[in-house]
Amino acid sequence: MLAQNILEELKKIVGKENVLTSKEDMIAYSFDATAAMPEVKPDVVVMPENKEQIVEIVKLAGQHKIPIITRGAGTNLSGGTIPIKNGIVLSMLKLDKIIEIDAENLTARVQPGLIIQKLNDAVAPYGLMYPPDPGTVTTATMGGSVSECSGGLRGLKYGVTKDYIMGLEVVMADGSVIRTGGKTVKNVSGYDLTKLFTGAEGTLGIITEITVKLIPAPKYRRSMLAIFDDIDKAGNTIADIISNKVIPATLEIMDNVTIRTVENYAKIGLPVEAEAILILEVDGNIEQIVINEYETVQKICKDNGAVEIKLAQSDKERDAVFAARRAALPALAQVRPTTVLEDATVPRSKIPQMLKALKEIAKKYNLQIGTFGHAGDGNLHPTILTDESDKEEMERVEKAVDEIFKIAIELGGTLSGEHGIGMAKAKYMEWEFGKEGVEVMKKIKDALDPDHILNPGKMFGGN
Amino acid sequence: MTIYDSLEAVKAELANCMKCGNCQEVCPIYIEEKKEAAVARGKIKLVEAVLKGDLEYTKGFEDKLALCLTCKACNEKCPCGVKVDKIILGTRAAIVKNRGLHPMKKMIFGTLKKPGLFNFGIKTGGKFQGLVFKKHKSLHGAYPRFPFGLDLRRIIPPLATTPLRDQVPEVVKVDNPVKRVAFFTGCTMNFIYVDAGKAVIDVLKKNNVEVVIPKDQHCCSMPIIAHGDAATAKEMAKSHVDIFSKLDVDAIITACGSCGLTFQRHYLELLEDDPEYYAKAQKVAEKIIDISDFIVKVIGLDKSKLGPLNMKVTYHDPCHLNRGMGVKSTPREVLKSIPGLELIEMKNADRCCGSAGSFSLTHYDLSMAIHKHKIEAIRATKADAVVTGCGACIMQITDGMNRFDLNLPIYHTVEILAKSYAAKEGEKEAKAVS
Question: How would you classify residue A65: left for phi > 0, otherwise alpha for psi between -120 and 50, otherwise beta?
Fold first, then answer.
């Protein structure tokens, strides 16, 4: 519990209507979209309306060493916004303006509480787009997705959030305000602080403004769905597409467990015997090139023994193709009470190996694991279907998760392709970075936030 | 065990929620409030906390659960198919059981339950309303003269001096009827929008349909269900099931999404554990059909009967009509079939107008903040009239126009259809004269 005088101070800073303290409100901020995480209530939720208020809040929190958990829409999947050490949840949703769209320089400046899709809606009339499109694009905020460095379905061709962040304004733990990067494409001055704060999960500073890169939106796109009776054939298809110099915007995979579950849930006519389904989309601004790439991809699928290829001839058919992929997580989530969704990522050439390893792990620990994900960029979503209330099973889940990350790293991959570390993966950090690597990060953390008031308990665990 | 009898019954629905937060995109209340407890997953979390014993039935819990329009936008968006409104309504019933009903609501609902008393009150109101309301100069409504629980900025539609059901016979006969239907008028068409109610009868007559308008029908009970008074709602459901299952009719026509949905779904939920009534309620529910659906899908829209209407209109989808009863295309079909009439779609036509019946009374400022988007969407179409299919929406849009400075006539879909029929009659008469 925070002392009454601190609550009064907060009310003075943001107005009493922007300070929430009721037990009901605290329960509503005790969780985010991550499954199987502890629920912890904050002491207070504060909804600032401008940067100046944030500076005041940070100074107050610093003075009393109160944790600050910056929160956008709370849609992350790594427990990143759970106030594990209580304190102040700083809800950024009222800072939701687009400050500027600079079509000439292909940039936009936005506030962190802006919903990603709103930026896309605003730049579409200019024929531009902001490519990162996490599954939560219509709910997640820009600040949240920069802090988690989220990805999405278009990562293979268009990259992830960090590839589009050109500059930031950040309130530091001591209340000072810095600006990093800028509008220029070329910028090599000093350390790349923009990249440092992107994906820092709110542990190093509080982002109050974001300058993003925009690109011309592709005018043409073609999609298809290819069905395989063998994981290796699907894997070879992925490898061949890339080696034929085609970079699809989307290259998604679903394994047999996922296919069966989706079909059972959505009844959209997927072959339940199939070992893998690939969902592909090529896009671009020159129609003939898009068509050529489309035909190349078709041929590669055929040559690698795809049992069936469904071509989407219209927007409606495209929607049907993507419906299968979109149904993956909700369908899997229906099977058991708890859905543990991971995002271990491997080099794309290792996808078949990773899929086989996941199958082994499921068998070894007697668990249901459905795997789907962004095959093109090696980012898989092994999804364990389980029940939080079953202690014995959860122990097996934990062991399985350990093993999933171990194999991902062994194959030259990473703990997280797009969800971030948060609380969920903090304990594995040394596996990827070694003691020394983690030590470097901790030094950065100590230098920028010596009292550890910013989102404590994340990234490195119990600090 | 129904969802209105025990919170345990909503557990299965709760378990489907994976807390992804997709509901944030569409929740009209969350969009205004930007608070987690205002959106479906937050409210679900609170219900779970109560079930786990982490939270009591507090005043705060009651207030948070009141923040739902039951517009079902989240139901439609939810990737896991969670029926959020079911959770909300079940929980509100549990809250009433644990905290009791507000004395004011108790009195009002008690009156709604007794059709005679309610009719008397409303009729008396109709005669004396000039004393308390000051008429708006052009919109169909009046400002309250005294703040008797109503916001003074608000305009309230005048009550009819004679309710619809007192103006029409109990059976409206036609020669050689093709169908025989019952008409459930609902409160708004009986007491306020009598013209819309007459238009329903008129349109049915024009299509050779005999109409039975049972005199003893009363409020459908939607406001009572919404406030969690399940015991009263059950009585009212039984009463309507009795009244309507007695009738020898092919269909029961509604012209209000909330009324229709209440018969179609909520009565079944309320009477789930009463096998005898449930079976009867099911038969009644199967006969319920909205007027637009009935004309287009059952009778068939006879375009030769339609006369020209020179107007540009925009159509607002009532939540319970659209997401509740699944009526979305037929009102548009009716409008598009009328010669000379241009339908201009507004942005987010299916977004809640913020009324949610009594929500607009209990949360006036929030209701109007939500509504502002609707008025702006209407304004942007440059249409010269608004059409919709629900009395509560008409009431809200009228008030909203006054608040946000727009002045357009608002019609029920069926009124436009009746006008078009009349225009054709007029044409014929003109021809006969010449």
Answer: left
- Top residue of A23, A27, A32, A137 to mutate, by most chain B CBs within 10 Å, is A27
At B338-365, the pLDDT tens digits run 999 999 999 999 999 999 888 988 899 9
Burial class (CB in 10 A: 0-12, 13-18, 19+), A366: exposed
User: Which CATH number is A98-216 given?
Assistant: 3.30.465.10
CA distance A221 to B165: 59
Q: Which residue has the higher pLDDT, A124 or A1?
A: A124
Instruction: Read off the tokens for B316.
Output: 């607002």
Which of A24, A45, A138 lies closest to B64 in CB terms? A24
For chain B, say whether A75 makes contact (Cβ under 8 Å). Answer: yes
Domain A336-410 has CATH 1.10.10.10: no
Say what the pLDDT of residue B127 is. 60
What's residue A326's pLDDT?
A: 84
User: Hey, which CATH number is domain A4-91, 3.40.50.1110, 3.40.50.300, 3.30.43.10, 3.30.450.20?
Assistant: 3.30.43.10
User: B89 in a domain, yes or no?
Assistant: yes
Residue in the structure block whose two tokens are 């542990």: A203
Q: How far is B52 from chain A (nearest CA, A)?
A: 12
Structure tokens at A336: 């058991």
The radius of gyration computed from the CA coordinates of chain A, to the nearest angstrom, equals 22
Show the beta-strand stretches assigned E in B196-319: 209-212, 251-254, 288-290, 311-316
CATH code at position B418: 3.40.50
- For B46, the closest of A28, A115, A326 (CB atoms) is A28
Size of chain A, expressed as the number of residues it contains: 463
Q: A47: which chain B residues are within 8 Å (Cβ-Cβ)?
A: 34-35
For residue A431, report the phi and psi dihedrals to the nearest 5 degrees: -60, -35
- Statement: residue B125 has pLDDT above 80: no
The candidate with the shortest Cα–Cα distance to A279, out of A325, A233, A236, is: A325
- Residue B271's SS3 state is coil
Contact A28 B15 (CB under 8 A): no
Burial class (CB in 10 A: 0-12, 13-18, 19+), A390: middle
pLDDT per position as a tens digit, A98-142: 999 999 999 999 999 999 999 999 999 999 999 999 989 999 999
User: Which chain B residue has its CA at the smallest distance from A338's CA?
Assistant: B18
What DSSP character marks residue A412? T
Average pLDDT across chain B, whole number: 91
Q: If you average pLDDT over residues B19-39, what whole number do you get?
A: 97
Asked if the Cβ–Cβ distance from A23 to B79 is below 8 Å, we say no
Task: Provide, as residue numbers in chain B, all residues whose Cβ is less than 8 Å from the Cβ of A23.
Answer: 55, 58, 60
Contacts with B54 from chain A: Cβ below 8 Å:
27
**Number of cross-chain residue pairs from A and B with Cβ atoms under 8 Å apart:** 81
CB atoms under 10 Å from CB of A389, counted, come to 9
Q: Starting at the edge strand that comes first in sequence, how are the strands of the sheet with A177-181 ordered?
A: A98-102, A107-110, A206-213, A165-171, A177-181
Asked whether A25 and A45 are in contact (CB, 8 A), the reply is yes
| Min distance B292 CA to chain A CA atoms (Å) | 27
Query: Are residue B339 and residue B391 in the same domain, yes or no?
Result: yes
Give the residues across from A216 on adjacent strands.
A128
* CB atoms inside a 10 Å sphere around CB A135: 23
CATH code of the domain containing B35: 1.10.1060.10
Give which of B17, B18, B52 to mutate to test A binding, by max A Cβ within 10 Å: B18
Phi, psi (rounded to 5 degrees) for B253: -90, 135
pLDDT of B143: 65
Q: Are B34 and A93 inside 8 Å of each other by CB?
A: yes
CB–CB of B37 and A23 under 8 A? no
